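Fold this sequence, please.
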Amino acid sequence: MNRDAATPDTRLAPSASTARVSYRTVDIDGVKIAYREAGARKKPTLLLLHGVPSSSRMYDGLMRKLGDRYHLIAPDYPGFGNSDAPTPANFAYTFDHLAAVIQKFTDAVGIDQYVLFMQDYGAPVGVRLAMARPSAVLGTIFQNGNVYEDGLGPIWEKRKAFWTDRAANEQAVRQTHLSVETTRARHIGTDPHVEAYDPDLWMDEYAYLNRPGQAEIQSELIFDYQYNLAAYPAWQTWLRGQQLPTLVVWGKHDLAFTVPGAEAFKRDLPNARVVILDAGHFAMDTRLDEVAEATQAFMQELL
């Protein structure tokens, strides 16, 4: 942990890694939403929102680490993980809609106050959720969850071409996004320590991405992502006005969202704690203990 490292008294005891995770489903407007849950409901809640092309599975280790201290709940968005994946003809795959589904999910599972933990796609889903219901959010944690232009890596230029001319660029975007090479690179990024990464991380996601109908679903969300960038100024204004307690945990080897995106939070949230890790886009791939310790320190301060 390179910056604002957790103090020794926040380190997790070995016994903290044994919490049980339960795997459940709930119906939201006729769509089965799968979710993971750990910890007693009487304890403070962490709502964990995953990235692309992953699922709530990315939080399994963190939930086992912290489930003896907190209530943790992590849904799979429609089209992801073990949730239903209706076709785009029957479900609008936009970030507005995903946020609306997750808001209904929180109602259905009975959580009315929580700390938002957001990774990648979790940020545009979570910020929308927070703005729609600010009284529910006690604090925010961004793990390579970008809301600043500063954090956009060079790979976004290809996405911008797709947004400008969808017909001309869609096939190439699909082929790249669904390839095993891109799925692997999303995890490793520029990290020279490739031996630290379990290949199952991307091979499982690659298999998921190539299920029937996934190309269309992923394409819809990639195209809709342009409206997240357009919303950045409004989100930043909201963050600046709310001044919620915030932790920013960032893997420095991320190709999509670079370190300046983490540092930019300080412009609007001067009291935010920024932790830069020697990790990739999914920091918990290789730095689970550090992420857990930073989260534990943040939660202790907050509560």
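The longest strand covers residues 21-28. The radius of gyration is 18 Å.
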